[in-house]
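Researcher: Hi, I'm a grad student and pretty new to this. My advisor asked me to get structures for two proteins we've been looking at. I'm not sure of the right format, so I'll just paste the first sequence and hope you can take it from there.
Model: That works fine. Here's the first sequence with its structure tokens right after it:
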Amino acid sequence: MMVPLADMVRPKCLDEVVGQRHILGRGRVLYNLIQKKNVPNMIFYGPSGTGKTTVANIIANSVGKRLYKLNATTASVSDIRAIVSELDTLYNVDGALLYLDEIQNFNKKQQQSLLEFIENGKLTLIASTTENPYFYIYNAILSRSNVFEFKPVEPQEIEAALARAAKILSERMGGIGITFADGVLAFIANVSGGDVRKALNTLEVCAMSAAPDEKGDLHITLSGAEEAAQKKAMRYDRDGDSHYDILSAFQKSIRGSDPDAAVHYLARLLSAGDLISACRRLLVIASEDIGLAYPQAAAITKACVDSAQQLGLPEARIPLAQATLLLATAPKTNSAITAIDAAMRDLETMDVGGVPANLQDSHYSGAAKLGHGQGYLYAHNYENNYVAQQYLPDNIKDRVYYTPGNNKNERAIAAYWDKIKNKDRGEK
């Protein structure tokens, strides 16, 4: 029986794993735990095809423990008892590691059956779930485990995995050449929705269905990739220009308050399976283009993005459409990005000077001798919780970075502070 490509190219070490740099990058927590062979009970949480099983296999090999695998959709308490019965045998002198996939499908009683053995250290549990563990996993298991979130893999990292897989596939097929039309690997990477396994399966179907040329080599076309993925390509080219054109049009349509165009470009992103880019761009837009004109938009957008990532496609389209329409129809201001960019530009181009002495930390012995904190006026001791004093460094003490936008919310903010600050200066 032919081994699926996804299993053939499964990484054997951490350096081969794509994605998850936030937990598996050198110096990160999970990376360090594995390197030190001191692995605690863990729960891996995230979408399918993001490396949860792969990392569990690597851990088992690195710590020298026997690995047992169960899937909670089909396993029962008797399966756990069978594993437990072997814990004190010669097979498991150094203890055993249980990889329990889809643990959310175990009921409370089944999860409780693990407690005694993960507490005494005879059994190290690595459980995986595509659902939020804080909603589906028994608290006693959670309190004894470390939760690590696996995130959808970025397209560029999936593309690198596909290139590696193509070489292995070529070897498996007797060394025949496998070439790709422009944009094919980028397309497969983007339509996979952050799922490496899905991308590899699509690549395998492309190769198996491609007609060999006169030399016996295979050339995979974009139309062939579309057919294999059962999706229409969004015309990603090798450099990603079309992809970024669509993202640009998406943001500019929201900024320009055109909900119809905004939803159109969202649909193009999601039709290509690019959930990650759509989510990231919406989070940016909420602060860059709406900002203080409607501050609640950032929180609402974050909630919609979280829902989308938990749901996955196709259902993710609904909360993302909600966020898109909200942002497209909301009042606009770019005061936040204008302010921070101006402040950062000054840091790069001039000597801004040090923190004023009255603002320096005074909560340590000897601060008073240095003059740190002296003369500071505590705003809450004054009417309206405001008192005029210098906060910016001397070199830029008159700098103005924030200019309120011309929208109802920021006009109200500006009017309020004009009133308070004029009163403080004794003006009417």
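Researcher: Oh nice, that was easy. Here's the second one.
Model: And its structure:
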Amino acid sequence: MSQIKLEDVYFSYRETPEGVLSGLNLEIRAGSFVTVIGSNGSGKSTLLKLLNGLILPDRGEVKIDGLSTKDRKNLRAIREKVSLLFQNPDNQIVGDTLELDTAFGPENLGLESEEIGRRVEKALDRVGLLDKRHLSPQALSGGEKARLGIAGVLALESSVMALDEATAMLDGDGRERVLEILLKECRENGRTIILVTHHSAETLLSDRVIVLDKGRIILDGTPKEVYREAKLLKEKGIPIPPYAELSLLLDKGEIALTGDELWHMVGGKNG
């Protein structure tokens, strides 16, 4: 059974009655690393909010481990399964210190204080903020706030991590560090990672790339399969990694290198 399943999902905001998502059908297996790309307004952020039950579909159904978000009694269990990182880290800050902010999610799960402390320390350490645990989040730079948001998601230890532009405010080193953390969570801890990104190079590390355009999936496959459609992506205003484009040119439409090879070839810091 797929861990995540969307069946003929439609969703629109009041200010966009023409619809944001239109008849979306999607299945994601547990333990996979999925990246989602598309132009602005394509429905990427809306998709993540639907997975967490933060918003509900107008039509169709979203199921997490077989639980429908439309059944309100399922929402607590679904939100324990799917942690959500917002695009703007300021929207996720709730604590007076980094330590209290990171502890907010685990506390809501009703965990013992000792377990909360363990999770908070581990999460802050992994994003490089443990030495600032007693500072106010407002004392942080934009990049540090982004890492604090990631720490909050890590501390939940949920089976699905849905992240909206998790690396957008980070420099090259910061992006590489966060991506290494996400890859480890996926490969070693079996978590499902769904990362919305505008950095096309980041998609090369994923198992699967989903391309949205005007609320519909126009491409869905491995990075190698998706970037074979370079012409279509460019027509939709969606950039492709320069290294993938070079490889396409050299190999006459076939990506010669794997995503990992391409990523490490350039140090994972550009694109």
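Researcher: Is there anything I should tell my advisor about the second?
Model: You could mention this: The first strand starts at residue 4 and ends at 11.
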